[in-house]
Amino acid sequence: QRRIWLDCDPGHDDATAILLAVHVPGVKLLGISTVHGNASAENTNNNAARCLYAFAAPEDIKIHPGATKPLIRPTRHDPEIHGIDGLGGVEGLPPGTYGDVQERLDHTGRPPKAIDAIARAIEDTWKDGSGDKVTVISSGPMTNIALFVSVYPELLDGIEEFVFMGGGVGIGNRSSSAEFNILCDPEAAQIVLDVPVKKIMIPLNVTHTAIVTQETLHRLLSPGTSYSPGSAPAKASTKLRHMLWTLIWYFAESYKSTFGFMHGPPLHDALTIAYVSSPEMFKCKRYRVDVELSGTHTAGETVVDIWSYRDCNDSWGRDGKNCIVVESLDVASFFQLFLECVSRCDAV
Ligand code: BDR
Ligand code: CA
Asked: Which residues form the Inosine/uridine-preferring nucleoside hydrolase domain (predicted)?
């Protein structure tokens, strides 16, 4: 079983990443930390707890609050895509104040904040004699991760790999050239790209292929029944499926009105967990990746050196290629895995 830590900013697609992190085979979720991003840090923290409760996660998985703002730049949220509280339009989630949701927050003494909780998880795993390491996953701005690698450099060897949803190869979504997670905190992303840990970037080019189509929605709502194009959506067969349907519906409307996506929304963040559980679904290549930190029009752009212009030895004595970039996904297998996780969650 691969041990994972998820740092996220829920967020509709982050919520689907949490569902997978809890229910995907071959993975043990050690904990979750939250960061500013799609909504305020307070909202993303609450939302993660609401999701853990709704997805029937084991009670020992706790949520740890992290950075409330980027390292240098002004804070930005994305109510146009995710609603004011980050999970706009999602029906069937309890409020953050609900007692059982509050239980998901770590109340032991003074709860460790994100970076200390990540450190503890790595220490407990790596130093337990098994030689196991932790895969750290990021589905939001990388502020927490940049702080973690800066404060705890001695624990970098305890990280198996760092998998993140972010950036694009020649495309952006929240500026002409930058993707939201990187745009929120470009300096943090560059700090992380510079650390000598294996890194896997899942860019927009690939996440935009993971579209929830009408057929997938049908399989979500009425598993085991056949789909005929154009038919009206069935009523969800369980509360969980209804919740996920409202989540996807809201996200679809955002993507339609903001980006003109007419066939459904992309489940960006869920791909990080799918990558850890089923890497064979993905095709990847190693490149030099840096973040534009000073461009007048391009701040936050991920500069992926596909022609190897900057392919020189770096300070760790390796060639300059610092990041594995995912280039394609077996979309059908991904949605099969997603629906299997829904069924597993339903069965708890
Ligand atoms: C990323 O930004 C947010 O809208 C999503 O949660 C995802 O992590 C996509 O650019
Ligand atoms: Ca996210």
From this structure: 4-336
